[in-house]
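Late entry, evening session. Most of the bench is empty. Finally got around to the prediction I had been postponing all week. Sequence below, unchanged from the version circulated by S.P.
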Amino acid sequence: MATSLSAATPSGLFSFDASAAAIKKNSRWLAGGVSSNFRLNISPTPLVIERGEGPYLYDVDGNRLIDYYLGMGPMILGHNPQALSDAVRTQMEHGILFAGQTAIEVEAARLVCEMVPSAERMRFNSSGSEADQAALRLARAATGRDKIIKFEGHYHGWFDNILWSTAPGLDVAGPHDAPNPVPGSKGQPAGSVDGLVVLPWNDLDVVEKRLAGGDVAAIIMEAAMCNAGAVHPAPGYLEGVRAACDKYGTVLIFDEVITGFRLAPGGAQERFGVTPDLSTFGKAIANGFPVAAIAGRANLMDMFSTGGVVHGGTYNAQPIAMAATVATLKALQPSLFADIEVTGGRLMSGMREIFAKAGVKAVVEGFPQVFHVAFGLDEPAKDYRDLAKMDRKTYVAFTSALLQRGVRALERGAWFMSITHTEEVVDETLNAVQDTVRHMRASGAL
């Protein structure tokens, strides 16, 4: 296995002592040494990164790591692609922020509208959380209703009114067909759940029965459940929800912050052939720059300009970020997705084979562009409650052991692929997975 071992221990495994020391020191100024709770408490330590190049990260310990975090999803072109760097550098020469419109913003918007089936109009934001809030506000304004349906295990940002039942314990989740709303954080006001209805995903009958009440403004969902796992919609499910929303006058929102510009040029809605009324995007839209978007039907989106619905943001469509967006979207050609289908598919099948030969009970499921590994499951998950039964403790031990062998994978089970994860990188990764499984089996940890 070809790796940089400048920080390796005598056993040949990587060490992360410098990262651990830096996190401890940095906690004097940064709460927990990080700026997002989703980077906290990573085993064996949150990492401090010096630079990224292609599929690799280089940390303060001198380790070269094959990266499957990819910024938690955005880096579909890999780290530091030349075309994006050039576009950003050129825009820097013209200015940073104007509180006005630019030609580069319009070009980015045109590309989004040409690529995304639902996008007749669009607006830019700085984060997916903001875009989701804009979509919910728009749906309530358009329908005159207050109720919003979201699904267990689906994540739509960290704001109080939507951070419910993203990862509830099964002991408090309640019955399958009528889940208890479970807050995702301390400090959420009890009243912030008012107007929110939590349902199980992939159960069309439950959705149709709830919509029949005629009081639901919107359904918001990940069209493929890719935050908690990488779960496919059941056959006919998206089509059935689309038809039910049409029947009862409910706005259908696809949260494509993860799936957008990753599962296909036009996102999950292109891949599955179901068009929502509104869509939200982030992550892969600008390959790591803080860009998000809301897009959808013209008569809905135009309510921002003529219908009295407020949407704003100082950094919305910031020109440098727009230059990154244009460079990224121009690069997202069908051939790119076809290439990742091959390499990502080969990584998935290779991992399945390694687990099966070693007698490890695990499911590798999802899409070549983003898939999920779940230890302890016998079959692919259909919803959050299936995913919640995975053996997370053992999987974290697995990712920790992989990291010591030069491969960085998310502890929650997701693996993100980029165009720079070549056949050679996949080979190296599979070698590391094989060695990790062999070691864990021998030690009784797996």
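Two things to note before I forget:
The chain has two domains: 17-67+334-443, 82-331.
The chain is about 35% helix and 15% strand.
Will write this up properly tomorrow.
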